[in-house]
Design brief:
single chain; mainly alpha; two-stranded antiparallel ribbon; rod-shaped
């Protein structure tokens, strides 16, 4: 039995070594590690030819022959896609398109550098150019239909470009700027939920950014704009209050301090008035002084210096004095009792 087991084990080891020798994955690409590394690299001859074409295109650009230079650059990109010069060709082509106002096409060409030349040495310049493209669209730049007719404004396209910039370089200085601009676009397009999402990412991922105070302020403003009044749900009011309070705690030296304090007071008064309204409901229409007192005291706690708090104190004084409210409901009840 032991002899049989040993024979099976020996055969298995022989089979495994034979399979490894015949089906080594490295052999699928020629059998050499160096060949694998070279798969994404152009040959020396291609690099030389691509560089020659690139220098020629640069000379044409300097001489003002933009059309001829653009054709040279496209040739480099198509014929020598793996060459290092292809990255420079795409960058120069992107700049030409930007000068023509073709912001979407320029951004896409620059994005090809990110995907196809991840080690491109002028990566920051690519990001900067992409940011310029997105900013131009954000500010209302229009493309051309058939190169003649002015196209439509494209704020949504600008937003998607800014979001792509964040994905391209989440740790760059451009990322928080792109998030803020995207939030501003969504606010202008009446998409508050999307704006809140962008601002939330800015606050959580880039708390040390110079834009952090603006993010907190805009977040509070966005929530306050969602408030319909004291008669409605106050979830957005509470969120606005929270972000205004965070602003005051985190940025006590900010120049907008007075404005934020004023807006916070307005939101607190609104929230307090919503509690006052609930107190009035129980006091005037349910004759439930216990419930009314709870809401009147909430009103004072939320905003003790507000007009709503003063009204709540007056109501509490009436309840303690035994004053009965005179409402339509109480008049009807009195008439029926007679």
């Amino acid at each position: 039995m032991q002899s049989t087991t040993a024979s099976i084990l020996a055969f298995s080891l022989f089979l495994a070594s034979s399979l490894h020798a015949q089906f080594n994955p490295l052999d699928w690409f020629g059998g050499e590690d160096e060949d694998l590394v070279a798969l994404n690299l152009a040959s020396a001859a291609d690099e030389s030819e691509a560089n020659s074409l690139l220098n020629s295109a640069k000379t044409m650009l300097a001489a003002g022959n933009t059309g001829s230079a653009e054709r040279k650059l496209k040739k480099i990109i198509k014929k020598y896609p793996k060459a290092v010069a292809s990255g420079d060709a795409r960058f120069l082509h992107g700049q030409i398109l930007m000068k023509k106002g073709r912001w979407v096409k320029a951004f896409d060409i620059l994005q090809e550098i990110i995907f196809k030349h991840p080690n491109y040495e002028n990566f920051n310049q690519v990001l900067s150019a992409q940011f310029d493209c997105a900013t131009a669209l954000m500010e209302g730049a229009r493309g051309r239909i058939l190169w003649i007719i002015p196209g439509f404004k494209q704020p949504s396209k600008a937003a998607s470009q800014f979001e792509q910039i964040v994905r391209n370089a989440p740790y760059s200085d451009y990322a928080p700027l792109a998030l803020m601009n995207t939030a501003l676009i969504y606010e202008q397009e009446q998409r508050p939920e999307d704006a809140i999402d962008m601002l939330d990412r800015l606050i959580n991922y880039y708390p040390q950014s110079m834009l952090a105070p603006d993010a907190y302020y805009n977040m509070a403003q966005t929530y306050s704009n969602l408030v319909n009044g004291a008669e409605y749900d106050q979830g957005s009011t509470r969120q606005a209050i929270s972000y205004y309070e965070d602003f005051l705690i985190l940025f006590p030296q900010n120049s907008s301090l007075g404005e934020v304090e004023s807006k916070l007071a307005a939101m607190e008064d609104l929230l307090a008035r919503s509690r006052l309204n609930l107190g009035d409901f129980f006091y005037n229409y349910r004759s439930n002084n216990t419930a009314a007192l709870v809401f009147y005291n909430d009103t004072i706690t939320i905003a003790p210096e507000s007009e709503a708090a003063e009204e709540a104190r007056a109501r509490i004084a009436d309840i303690e004095a035994g004053v009965q409210p005179t409402t339509g409901a109480s008049i009807v009840r009195g008439f029926l009792a007679d």
